[in-house]
Design goal:
50 residues, globular
Length: 50
Amino acid sequence: MIEKKRLLRYSMQLSMLRQLLNKKLISEFEYKKIKKRLMKDYNIVSDITA
């Protein structure tokens, strides 16, 4: 149960991050840097969205 909540929070944050990129509110560099940090914080080892 906790794992599902953690994954859901990660997915939501990644979605919001993508929206910022799409609206040109952050750069590609910033997107990659923040995404990498999110992956570290949520212990995501593989990027299946790439």
